[in-house]
Each structure stands twice: as structure tokens, then as C-alpha cells.
Design brief:
Elements lengths: L2 H9 L1 H9 L5 E2 H8 L3 H13 L3 E8 L5 E7 L1 E9 L2 E8 L4 E7 L2 H13 L1
Length: 122
């Protein structure tokens, strides 16, 4: 994943809410859905995206009283920063285990301007 994808994920409303809600203790998808007002299907999609990005983990699996197995998710993120400077987007994520992930994305504004001009003239 690069900085642009990381920044999109971190600034997505549902993803940010899930990460914040799971920073202090693991929570189930149902609990997140109910407490955050996120539709359950959207909640599972965001959980999957956050897991795939390595920002959220399944910290525990439990059996409910009804015998159903549920997963409890916890954020791996301690600090996340997104920096926009000149022609670059940088994302820096410090994880709970002390590791740091750095992502950089160089943005070619010249190519973007040429695309816009070409689109206007078409």
C-alpha cells in the first residue's frame, strides 16, 4: 500500500471511527456497528480493508452463549500522520508494538495539469 491509499483509508469516516473505537480494547463487528452507527455490512467491509492494510487485527475469538463464534478486533495504530508537502504525500503510522510504517507518494502535478488542459480542449 502506498501513501495515497493509506491516507484514503485513514481519513475514511467509518475506518477512522473503527480504528479509534478499537484503540483501547478489542470490539466485535456487531458492537462497532451498534455503537458507531455503521451498517453491519459496511462495518465488515471496513474491518476487512483495515485488516488487509495491517491496521487492525483479530485480537481474540470468543464463543457466545448461543454457541456462535465472534471475532474481536483491535487497532494496531498508536499514531498516524498524513503530510502533504509540495508534490508529495507522506503517511507515517506508528504501531502499538513500536514499529513504524512510512509510505510516500510523489504526485506529478505537471501530468495532471496536462490531462486537465487536454480534457478541456476535447
Amino acid at each position: 500500500m502506498h501513501a495515497l491509499e493509506t491516507s484514503r483509508l485513514l481519513t475514511d469516516e467509518y475506518s477512522a471511527r473503527i480504528l479509534l473505537a478499537t484503540m483501547t480494547k478489542p470490539r466485535s463487528a456487531f458492537e462497532l456497528s451498534e455503537s458507531l452507527g455503521i451498517p453491519i455490512a459496511a462495518c465488515y467491509r471496513k474491518i476487512h480493508s483495515l485488516e488487509k492494510a495491517g491496521l487492525l487485527i483479530c485480537a481474540e475469538r470468543r464463543l457466545t452463549q448461543a454457541g456462535k463464534r465472534i471475532s474481536l478486533y483491535q487497532s494496531r495504530v498508536r499514531i498516524a500522520q498524513i503530510i502533504f508537502e509540495r508534490n508529495r504525500i507522506r503517511a507515517r503510522i506508528e504501531m502499538n508494538d513500536g514499529t513504524t510504517e512510512n509510505y510516500n507518494y510523489d504526485f506529478d502535478f505537471t501530468a495532471l495539469v496536462k490531462e486537465c488542459i487536454h480534457a478541456e480542449n476535447s
